Amino acid sequence: MIKYGVIFAGQGAQKPGMGKSLYEASFAAREIFDMAGEEIKFDCFEAGADRLKQTEVTQPAVYTMDMAAYAAFCEALGVIADGGENGFAKPSGVAGFSLGEYAAYTAAGVIGSFEEGLSLVKVRSRLMKAAGTAPDGTPRGAMAAGMGDRDAVIGLVENAREDGVLEAVNFNSPQQTVIAGDEASVERFVSLAAGDRSLGVKAIKLSVSGAFHSPLMQPAADGFAEALQGFYFGAPSLPVYLNVTGGKYDEYDKIAVGSSSAKVRALMVCQIQSPVYWQASIEAMAADGIEIIIEVGPGKTLSGFTKKIAPEIISLHVEDAETLAETIARIKGG
């Protein structure tokens, strides 16, 4: 039996019209979108790029798209709990990039249902928007992608920080590290990279509404910790590779907690303001013998990272009816 993993896209992958062809082609995807409601269906199918950039719009829409693509994939592949003659087993592991981790938790049964996951994501998105917005309505922080050797990017972060807030927050691939902090510090980072080509770092400022996964998200983390008290979370039914470590949920022992719910709450709060160790997650999947990784959700950015991190892994993706058919044919064809 082929060992495959599923990874879920995060905020930033959204695009106008996402999910529309899956809605038309897959009963399972249609069920997810219909549960999400008309507003989210509009945001996915009809909204323009400017609306989709708003955090409180983006996160529920991308979570819905991720879960719809995953449902369509499972439906088309014929996933059953233990595999067998007429079906495939569940994934050998799941991971999600930032927001996508909520889809991974849902797929693994940590979050009990799509509806519960959507309610969580809506709360998270509102808190992160508030933390990332200054009183005058402008973004409180910024982010930029540093393309080049990681040590060079980290060194540039140290030089650009001065008395501001600036951290490396997304360790995406050997040649891409995203940084986040206050506006002035991020601008210094971009200027220093452009001004000294000998560093070998190309900096691209990102179109985002806050300094996500940085210390500037502390107010969102505090608010989310309080909001999570009303939710129950189960232990995962399959391996989940975590953003905050890159390793598996079952290996995470940095906190002493008495229940699955307490552990998940702590991880969710930590993730809002902690770096995403994405490269480490893909490396761990490869080390665990996963042969195919399927990215589900809008775009194929994570598939690109997979090819750079672990080129021996077959990298596929599902974001519409066409890529769904291509991916299923590739898996079933061996």
Condensed summary:
The protein is α/β, with parallel strands linked by helices and 334 residues long.
Structure, described:
- This protein has 334 residues and is of the alpha/beta class.
- It has 14 helices and eight strands.
- It has a four-stranded parallel beta sheet with strand order 2-1-7-8, with helices on both faces. Strands 4-5-3-6 form a four-stranded antiparallel beta sheet.
- Helix 2 (27-36) packs antiparallel against helix 5 (55-77), helix 5 (55-77) packs parallel to helix 14 (321-332) and helix 10 (218-227) runs antiparallel to helix 11 (260-273).
- It is globular and about 55 Å long.
- The model is unreliable at 81-86 (pLDDT under 50).
Instruction: Characterize the main sheet.
Output: 4 strands, parallel
| Total domain units | 2
The whole-angstrom Rg is 19 Å
Structural shape: globular
For the termini, the CA-CA separation is 10 Å
Please give the number of β-strands: 8
Strand order of the largest sheet: 2-1-7-8
Instruction: Return residue spans where pLDDT drops below 50 for at least 5 consecutive residues.
Output: 81-86
Mean pLDDT: 93
Q: Determine the CATH superfamily of the largest domain.
A: Malonyl-Coenzyme A Acyl Carrier Protein, domain 2
CATH topology of the largest domain: Malonyl-Coenzyme A Acyl Carrier Protein, domain 2
- Helix percent reads 40-55%
Q: Report the total helices.
A: 14
- For the record, the CATH architecture of the largest domain stands as 3-Layer(aba) Sandwich
The level-1 CATH class of the largest domain: Alpha Beta
**Class derived from helix and strand content:** alpha/beta
Strand content: 5-15%
Order of helices and strands: EHHHHHEHHEHEEHEHHHEHEH
